[in-house]
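#lab-general

N.A. 3:47 PM
ok so I finally got the sequence cleaned up, no stray characters, all 267 residues accounted for. can someone with queue access submit it? mine expired

B.Y. 3:52 PM
send it over

N.A. 3:53 PM
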Amino acid sequence: MLKALMVLHRACWLAFLVILGAGFFLDFTSLWGWLVIALAIALRVALGRVLARAPDPGPPVELDPPVLGRWSALNSPASKVPSHGVRAYGQTYAIDLVAEPLDRPRPGFGWWPPVRPNRDFPGFGAPLLAVADGTVLRAVDRNRDHLSRNSYPALLYLVVEGLFREIAGPGQILGNHLILDLGDGRYAAYAHLRRNSLLVRAGDRVRTGQPVAECGNSGNSTEPHVHFQLMDNPDLDVARGIPFTWREIGVPANGETISVDPTAGRR
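B.Y. 4:20 PM
back already:
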């Protein structure tokens, strides 16, 4: 059911764009376009209600953190659930992390410049680690790393761009991504990875703390950051989020900073 609703939802937005484009060349009422939009919104509401009725996921699963060094949290489940405003694509308990080293400030959000190169952000290229022992199910790193969208003008562009990524499916939203099978029906997803940075491929076994990729800025992303989530299914169209906690750290709230010692021993 969830899969069918997700596919139909994307089909509605695609139909709206087709109707919108056809309206420039053909003489017919725009009512059909608005009806399609209304159906797309109704489907999104229905999806949210279905996902909200999910069984209690149980206590948070303890994992190792996926990063080293100093990072701050955005869109954290410690501050709000669902953390990203939607439960779709297994994002109920997802979290975003941006690098915040003391010796290199992260560029702030503002009006100018509209875009920045990824090298301006300290997180770009930072190593990402396996949060637990597992098996690589999906590993994609062919998408380009785009310029930042962390300005008011670029944010408007991101909204429009996001619609096209939504139509194209979750793969275009996540950009370069990695999905690990941790066993017991738990799957860890890393999104927005750097192009050509994957150190593992589908079928590989990974150990806790093993470097697996680098932080990038691909997919539906404003700036180089780590999007991490735990879910109950590797198919993002039907996945439901699972709460997690990072060993000795917990889950940082929005704006809270965590520090993971790079010299500390990893299991």
